[in-house]
Amino acid sequence: MKWIKRLFRLKKCEHDWKFVRNIYGDEINHCGGYRSLWECRKCGRLQWRESLYQEENINCQTFH
Question: What residue spans of the chain are helical by DSSP H?
């Protein structure tokens, strides 16, 4: 019965995607060419995306 409720919730969910992680190196080949992983905050569904997620507020150090 729980799986029926979960299936219904997944189908009706208006997903609110949250970034989980980027995928690098050989793991890209293992994941079918996808570069980032996202999770819905509401239902927990996972989504693979082909593009890398790039955070806007990354502090990069410049070496002189």
Answer: 2-12, 26-30
